[in-house]
Design goal:
Order of helices and strands: HHHHH
Radius of gyration: 19 Å
Number of strands: 0
Shape: elongated
Distance between the termini: 49 Å
Structural class: mainly alpha
Length: about 80
């Protein structure tokens, strides 16, 4: 696949973006999220699964960075 001009040429990719999205959508249906991440990771491309907003506080990376913190609101509201 890396030998195809629609992959190596930005102009070719732009001209064929619809077909490329269709191909990626088909491939995505055939693999689990974990399998897809492993393949992209092997290509040394930064990757992270899409998350629902409600699931973000449980994301290991975001939790490790301390992105979400519980604080006491001055009016007594909990958060």
């Amino acid at each position: 696949m890396l030998d195809h001009r629609w992959v190596t040429s930005m102009d070719e990719r732009s001209e064929n973006i619809g077909e490329i999205y269709d191909m990626v959508a088909q491939i995505a249906r055939e693999r689990t999220t974990a399998e897809s991440i492993a393949l992209v990771d092997q290509a040394d491309i930064l990757v992270m699964p899409a998350r629902w907003l409600k699931d973000l506080p449980q994301d290991p990376h975001l939790a490790a960075t301390g992105l979400f913190q519980k604080i006491n609101h001055p009016t007594g509201a909990r958060g």
